[in-house]
Amino acid sequence: MNYNKKTVKDIDVSGKKVLLRCDFNVPQDKTTGAITDDKRIRAALPTIQYLLDQGAAVIACSHLGKPKGEVKPELSLKPVSVRLSELLGKPVIMAGDVVGPDAKAKAAALKPGQIMLLENTRFEKGETKNDPALAKAMADMAEIYVSDAFGAVHRAHASTAGVADYLPAVSGFLIQKELEIIGGALANPKRPLVAILGGSKVSSKIGVINNLLEIADTIIIGGGMAYTFSAAQGGKVGDSLLEADWMDYSKEMVEKAAAKGVKLLLPVDTVCADKFAPDANSQVVKAGEIPDGWQGLDIGPETVALYCAAVQDAGTVIWNGPMGVFEFPAFAKGTEAVAEALSRTNAITIIGGGDSAAAVQQLGYADKMTHISTGGGASLEFMEGKELPGVACLLDA
Ligand code: ADP
Ligand code: MG
């Protein structure tokens, strides 16, 4: 996939109607509907502000939740328009539909420097089916398409990809940064490239492991997936997370890494617990020697030292998947130590994956990383080397 795409700076948007796809899929309080975290709205501000400053008329759109093609009032984007208006310090005109008479009339009347928001794109059945008729109806309201919804680029939907068939399509600043940093690390990394892979399951990371094994110099394995690797080598893993169906695969990966000269590091010790709970009793044991009735919930201190040393002289570090159950403070030490080690390196440090981003934020290292991807699923598919429909549809630079 070509990561070098035209951005809003490469085209003249002044006086033009711009359809801007944002990721306003914000978390909401289940009972009151109040937005509990407006990070995604804030993240869209630089592109919106730039477009408005250039004298564009901005028709913003996004999905929210999963209304499945039906109008669900509790999934209206109205609260987002209110918050966006507060953050911008100017009115945001809210449309009552996506491509219906109200949206069309408001879009037609929109003046340069003004912004409106369409209703939840998933109120339309054609959105997730990438229906060309819906894409064209959205495109007909505008003259240029700008995508800044990195969190949705792995989906080929009408508003994330289909519209680009009808309008010149460029990226906003959020997508541009993701492409520059993650794309750069995959295509032409500053070496040595160290990939840290953890999280719960091997099975959810196959694509990432396969792809990074082709390009990384060192691969570090932690988290729950490490026990499948350990078991595949004859280790005792007690009640730890184990995917028996993926033991052969794990073995093959170790062999493949050796054959390619990629350094693959596995835990040498583990912090295990007598139950899956924050207040569990714990003990440190050697990898592959977890007693019956115990489960590994974090990497051990010797592993921490080994992994921290391995990232010290890295040129680039790509990290996906926590080293342990960081949600329990007693088992967050491995993840925290690795985050701390990354904060001390001169490497380009990239965090991808929803839980990994949450872990780094929760532990207080977010501002020490080069880049924390704004797309959970999208960043995973990016690291798998897959083509992202919402990026592929943009004009090449
Ligand atoms: P990401 O969202 O960053 O891609 P994953 O979803 O793959 O990451 O994994 C995150 C989850 O993995 C966390 O909720 C964490 O508690 C869990 N996890 C990490 N280590 C273990 C372990 N040893 N046992 C069970 N769960 C683990
Ligand atoms: Mg996750």
Average pLDDT:
96
Radius of gyration over alpha carbons? Answer: 23 Å
**Residues in β-strands, percent:** 15-25%
Q: What percentage of residues falls in helices of 4 or more residues? A: 25-40%
What's the total count of β strands?
A: 15
**Regions with little confidence, pLDDT below 50 for 5+ residues:** none
| Overall form | elongated
| Cα-to-Cα separation, first versus last residue | 13 Å
Briefly note the structural class of the backbone.
Answer: alpha/beta
Strand order of the largest sheet: 3-4-2-1-5-6
- Note the main sheet: 6 strands, parallel
Task: Lay out the secondary structure.
Blueprint: E1 17-21, H1 39-53, E2 57-61, H2 78-88, E3 93-94, H3 101-109, E4 115-117, H4 132-139, E5 144-147, E6 169-171, H5 173-187, E7 193-197, H6 206-215, E8 218-221, H7 226-232, H8 247-260, E9 263-265, E10 269-273, E11 282-286, E12 295-299, H9 301-311, E13 316-320, H10 333-344, E14 348-351, H11 354-362, E15 371-372, H12 376-383, H13 389-392
Parallel strand pairs: 1-2, 1-5, 2-4, 3-4, 5-6, 7-8, 7-13, 8-9, 13-14, 14-15
Antiparallel strand pairs: 10-11, 10-12
Helix pairs in contact: 1-2, 6-8, 7-8, 9-10
The chain binds adenosine-5'-diphosphate and magnesium ion.
